[in-house]
Design goal:
Layout lengths: L3 H9 L7 E5 L12 E2 L9 E2 L3 E4 L13 E9 L13 E5 L11 E4 L15 E4 L9 E2 L10 E3 L7 H10 L3 E5 L3 E7 L3 E2 L10 E2 L2 H11 L3 E8 L3 H13 L4 E5 L9 H9 L1 E4 L4 E2 L5 E5 L2 E6 L3 H19 L10 E5 L3 E2 L4 E11 L2 E6 L8 H6 L2 E5 L5 E2 L4 E6 H6 L1
Parallel strand pairs: 5-6, 12-15, 12-16, 13-14, 16-20, 18-23, 21-24
Antiparallel strand pairs: 1-11, 2-10, 3-9, 4-6, 4-7, 5-8, 17-19, 19-20, 21-27, 22-26, 23-24, 23-25, 25-27
Helix pairs in contact: 1-6, 3-6
The structure holds adenosine monophosphate (AMP) and magnesium ion.
The site of magnesium ion (MG) has 4 residues, from loops.
Length: 412
Amino acid sequence: MLQVSEARKRLLSQFKKCEIERIHFSEALGRVLAEDITAEHDSPQFSHSAMDGVAVLHSDLMEVEPSHPVLLDITGKISAGDFGSERLENGQAVLIMTGAPVPEGADAVVRVEDTNLDFSSEIISSQVKIYRRVGAGENIRVQGENYLAGSPVLQAGSVLRSQDVGMLAMLGQAEVPVYKKPRVGIFSSGDELVEPGKPLGEGQIWNSNSYMLSSLVDSCGGEAVDLGIIRDTEVEILATFEELIDLEVDLILTSGGVSMGIHDYVRRVLEEHGELDFWRVNMRPGKPLAFGKFRGVPFVGLPGNPVSSFVGYKIFVCPAISRNAGRPEMPVEYMKAVLDEPLRSDGRESYLPASYFKDGETLRVRPIGNQSSGNLYALVQANCLIIVPASVQSLKQESIIEIWSFREMEQG
Ligand code: AMP
Ligand code: MG
C-alpha cells in the first residue's frame, strides 16, 4: 500500500499555480501577490514635520538653555495639506503642524511643548520663545527616508495582510496582481445524510463534512463550491461530477463513498468514467483516500468519517490548494513532545487527536480518549495531532514523539 509521503508527492505533482488576475487592492486581504510591487515614489514623498511645533534653523538655537530661551519672529503657518511657503531666514520661525511640508531653509522643528506657545488658543503672538536646543533634522521626516522610488516593497508570493493592503493604498496603485482563487467543488455522498436544520429520520445523521471542508478550503486560500448531499447512486454521482466540470472547478473534493461498502460509488464512478491513481494510503485514520482525475480535473475522495476527512484534508488537500493559490511552500514544522501515557498503534502512519501542554520546560502530550474516526468531538477537544510513524506498534510512556499543532497547521 502507498505510504503517506509517496501518496502526497504523487498528488501534489498534479497541482500548479492558478492564473493571475488583477483586482482592486481593497479586496486583496488574504490573496497571494503574483508579482513584485515596486514603489513609484519616494516615501515620504516630501519632507514634512513629525510634530506640531515651529520650523527653525537649528543654528539659531546653539546657545539655548531652558533658563536662556531665544526669541524668533513668526513669519507664517503651514498646516498639513498646505504647500509652497516662503523661505525661512535666520531669526525666523514658522508654525508647522504634523504632516505639513517643511519650508525651504528650515532644517529642524521644535515641538510646541518646548516653546511658550499654546496652539489651542486663538491668539498667537508674533514672536516665539524657544526653550530647547534641537539638532539638524530633528523632528523632520525626510523625503525618501522610508524607501526610494524604484524600491521593491512587496514580494511576489506574499499572502497579503492588512498592513500590506494599507501599503498598496499608500502606493497609490488601484490594481494589484494576485493569483486566482482555486475553485474547489465539494459534495458529500451518503443516503444517511440530512442537512443541518432539517429533522432526522431513523438511522440518519446530519451532514457535517461539507461544512467542515468548505471552511477548510476557505482557510487554505480556495473558494468552495458546495453542492451539498448527493445520494449513493452511480447516476447521481456521475451527474454531479459532470456538473462540477461545467462549474469550472480546479479540484473536485468529495466526502464518503470511497471505501469497501456496497454503496461506495464515488471511487467506482471515477474508476469507470475518469482516471483513478490510488485509493488507499497506509495511514490512520483515513486509509480509504482516493486520488485521480475526472475530465482532466484533479479529484480527491476523502473518507466519510469526519476525523479521517479532516486528517486527509490537512495532509493532502490543503497543500494542493495552497499550491494552486500561489502560497509559498513552507515545510511543516512538527514539535517534539513527551508522551504522557503509553500508546498502541497498528503499523499505519497515524495522526491522532491529542492535547499538548507545558509541564515546566517540557512539552507533554496526551491522546484524546475516544480515538474513533467518527468522533469529531476529539478534534474539537484537541490542540494537535500525534504522529506515529509507520511500522510502530506501540510507544511507551515518556517516549519522545512528533506532534503537529493546530496553530502550525493554520499557518501552513
Ligand atoms: P463512508 O466513507 O461513506 O463509508 O462513511 C463513513 C462514515 O462516515 C459513516 O458512518 C458515515 O455515516 C459517516 N459520514 C459520511 N459522510 C458524512 C458527512 N458528510 N458528515 C458526517 N458524517 C459522514
Ligand atoms: Mg457512505
